[in-house]
Amino acid sequence: MPTAKKEATIEELRVRIAAAKNLFFTNYAGLTVEEITKLRGRLRENEGDATYAVVKNRLFGIAAGTDLAKKVETYLNGPTGVIFAGEDPVSPAKALKAFSDDTKPVEVKAAWIDGRVVDAAQVQKLASLPPKIELLAQLLAAIESPLTGFVGLLSTVQSEFVRVIEALAEQRPQTAAPAAVPDASASAMPAAEPASATESPSPVAETSAPESPSPVAEAPATEPSSRVGEAVATDPAPAAETSAAEPSPAAE
Question: What is d(CA 89, CA 66) in angstroms, rounded to the nearest whole number?
Fold first, then answer.
């Protein structure tokens, strides 16, 4: 049965494991208390919420729970010091590397990062990367750059389109304006005037032209001809009668 002190240690480890997003398992063998204190200070410099603790493997396994303990049980042997890190796994890896280079080499057993086990070689590669904040900034810059270029391309296309429209608008008054003047006013207004011009001659033709010539043509054409004919036809007849009647007394 765990003692009360061990129960308190298990509960403390359980709380720290639940709060941590990433875990780094190291071998603290050969490190002095002063050096461990220095390592903790280096972790605080790189990431404020990262802490380092020397743990008992069995108690840590109990606090970690069945699932996590089974995945990391291979590394829970020998002297074990655990880094309880926040969301950024790069900063603790950098702190471990910097401490190993400046003070004393620290053996990295493995790490639990984003829900999976990472070996020591991958932790070393992780230490060569920029911090997570810089990685996110670079990612956003990489995403923003094509978008900026796309927006610039859209602006260029829009500007070219506006220039084309303006050029067409400038050319339209030179070609289409002369054709538009008859359509707008000259074709509509004069169309009503010929209607009155064509209507007015028709009464003139009905009243003056047909009425005046017809009496003139009827009178000279019929009356003189009949009278002259009658005069010619009737007048010689008496002349013949007189000339024929007059010799008869001479014969006598």
Answer: 23
Nearest to 27 by CA among 143, 108, 90, 132: 108
Q: How confident is the model at residue 130 (pLDDT cuts 50, 70, 90)?
A: confident
Burial of residue 63 (CB within 10 Å: 0-12, 13-18, 19+) is: buried
Which has the closest alpha carbon to 54: 86, 20, 78? 78
Which helix (H) or strand (E) covers residue 144, if one does?
helix 132-175
User: What is the DSSP secondary structure assignment for residue 73, as one 8-state letter?
Assistant: G
Element holding 215 (H helix, E strand): helix 213-234
Phi, psi torsion values for 212, nearest 5 degrees: -75, -45
Element at 51 (helix H, strand E) = strand 51-55
Signed CA dihedral, 184, 187, 193, 199: sign only = negative
Residues 6+ apart with CB under 8 A from 16: 51, 53, 84
Rounded Cα distance between 250 and 169, Å, is 118
What is the pairing mode between strands 107-113 and 116-119?
antiparallel
Cα separation, 68 vs 200, whole angstroms: 111
Q: Please write the tens of the pLDDT for every residue from 148-175.
A: 655 665 666 556 656 666 666 676 655 4
Please state, in angstroms and rounded to a whole number, the distance separating the CA atoms of residues 80 and 89.
Answer: 19
Tokens for 92, please give them.
């603790």
pLDDT at 163: 66
